[in-house]
Design a protein that fits this description.
about 120 residues; alpha/beta; four-stranded mixed β-sheet; about 35% helix; globular
């Protein structure tokens, strides 16, 4: 799987553009995920050919905050991506995750709820 960074709910165009510009030098695929795809497995959205898509479209509410999912990155690439996010000047993005074998079959909502719960426990 090619190193991919998925962006969720970056509705502010300026923030999204600044983040994208900061990530471009890392030569990773950057993909903005549409709200209608929130029921899809995150592994499928990241490009894992072994995970099949669902034939459903999400029509519910938007996520409560912006989220970044990093897929297929080495640990040094994750560090580089996090550094680029900080240097972008957009401020904090509290919901960040790495695609794992444990979460690759979750949909966007399940992943967001898990990250949100972890974030709340840490703070």
């Amino acid at each position: 799987m090619k190193a991919t960074i998925l962006l969720f709910h970056f509705s502010d165009k300026d923030r999204r553009n600044r983040l994208t510009r900061a990530l471009l030098p890392l030569r990773m695929k950057i993909k903005e995920v549409a709200r209608e795809d929130y029921l899809q497995p995150v592994g499928y959205l990241a490009g894992n050919k072994e995970i099949l898509p669902l034939n459903e479209k999400y029509e519910g509410e938007e996520l409560e905050g912006e989220m970044i999912l990093m897929a297929g990155l080495s640990s040094s690439q994750v560090d580089q991506a996090l550094k680029a996010v900080r240097k972008s000047g957009i401020g904090p993005v509290p919901y960040k995750a790495v695609l794992t074998s444990s979460n690759q079959n979750w949909n966007v909502w399940k992943l967001f709820q898990e990250i949100k719960a972890e974030h709340e426990q840490m703070n």
